Amino acid sequence: MAVAPAPDVEPSLEVTQFSDESNDSTFHFQILRLTNQLYVWIGCNSARMGNLYAALPTRWDKTASVAALVGGGADSTGASMARRLSMRTGWSIVLASNIPSNAPVLEAFAEQRLFQELRSMGYIKPASKPLNGPAAPLAPI
């Protein structure tokens, strides 16, 4: 049985780092862009890795599949963020986060800031525009 050769893929790696502050907390972000994949680390007040999640878009569902790789559960806040990142980018996502689980304001800030940066880098797909005006009338049968 013959094996088809793998397509030529140019390996690439782009690293982006930035920090921001909110509610007396300092957030550190690191984004590693690989070929069709993002590795995102979010540190809150420390350089600890925290929980690690993987999210992948699926062909048959509008949502992304998520797995907790280290710590956390598939229903935790980091898993939700990884799922939304995968759905918005269309790529596989590996997300490490040490945002406190009992701080929804901090999580919301971190996600908003991350999405802002990813949008400016061109990694987030633009949102679909709503229809303008009334729907077209149906053609008679």
TrEMBL record:
Record GO biological process: proteasome assembly
UniProt xrefs under Pfam families: PAC4
PANTHER family attached to this UniProt entry: PROTEASOME ASSEMBLY CHAPERONE 4
Protein name: Proteasome assembly chaperone 4
Species lineage: Eukaryota, Viridiplantae, Streptophyta, Embryophyta, Bryophyta
